[in-house]
Amino acid sequence: MSTLDTCPAAGPVGGATPTDAQADPAAARAVMVARLEEEGSLRPGPVRDALLALPREVLMPQAYVRRSAPGKEPPRWDLRDWSAPQDRPELLGLLYGGASVLVQHDGEPLLGRARGTRSGASITSMSTVMGLTASLLEELDLRPGLRVLDVGTGAGVTAAVACQVCGDRGVTTLDRDRHLTDAAAARLADLGFRPQVVCGSGEQGVPGREFDRIFVSYTVERVPTALVEQLAPDGKLLAHVTSASPSWPGLAVVGRTADGRITAELRAVEFAHRAGHGMARIWLNEELRQRMATEPGTWTQRSKLAPPADSDRGFWLAADHLLGGGLVRDFGSEHLAIGAPGCGSWMRAEPVGHRRWSVTVQGPRDIWKEIQDLADRWRAARSPDRYRLYFDADGGQRAASECGRLSWQLPATHPRDEGATP
Q1: Which of 2, 42, 347, 348 has an alpha carbon within 20 to 30 A of 396's alpha carbon?
Q2: 161, 163, 167, 173: CA torsion to nearest 10
């Protein structure tokens, strides 16, 4: 599994500091599960029971800790190893702290690695933030006997839970990276699970097979058609969908009825998985962030119009697609700040007294006006927080509000393999 594009970092520089309860794996699991229940990501039932029984240190006996400060080049990581007693307290803090767990550096094999320091290159696979994983596993409604396709094996956490709940004979896990599938097969076997482990294209799934549950653990620009075709009657598919911007994702929830009809919706969500292999991404670099925070801009005005609230996620999901797909929000800013890396335009909006906003705009795009114009359209469409998702006969995919007043096409299929998580 991959981690979030917009998630908190995997831990402070220097690694996590475990509590006394995390001094042994069973206590650490109990603390993690209790925390997930308290935050609402997990409820009593089979997923909770599976996570409480799952020794994550078997699936991830090694993990990286970032030792260099953000932005410092070259980056540096230490690989911690469960077989080294001195590493166990820190490794337990990483595995059960709830944040993403860094498991692969620069596409390396996971089996047979020596602990120690790596520098340069990048982390190429992570296990997802646990709260997101738990909530999506709950959404899947796993039950004994279901046939499950886990697309994006990563460290094997989703596959392990599916094996525990549904039985390993019905579980298939798929990833484009053979180093990940080899390690997952070995470590799942150490847990007593022997699902089918496939190295191949995530976009293609497993041709000729049918599944009751399909879980895509990386973000896509559109739902892979082959996976929809492999969905069995009464089945469910989950996949995060977004544009090149990581700021405002959606969760595609696709079902097939007992008589074979496809039903689907796109829900606005706060967080999503990382982008799949080969998917373009746009980001705010540090220079643009600084300009957005400090420069006077082309003009500044006082406005009685408030920007849409953070809780208006249905608006921001529509903005991700209908405002050109080139906008990125700076979530580190105290107030609303949005930039367009492609052309250098930006805006910031700060409250100044009762129902007044100071709005500053810079660049060829008037992002503030674009937002307000779309906000009017969104409200006219009854302020949806989710959209119907249509699969056209020609292969196109379209999202639309219930009333039909707000809609957009998802990007056409690219002639490349999106594969599974990097």
Answers
A1: 2
A2: 130
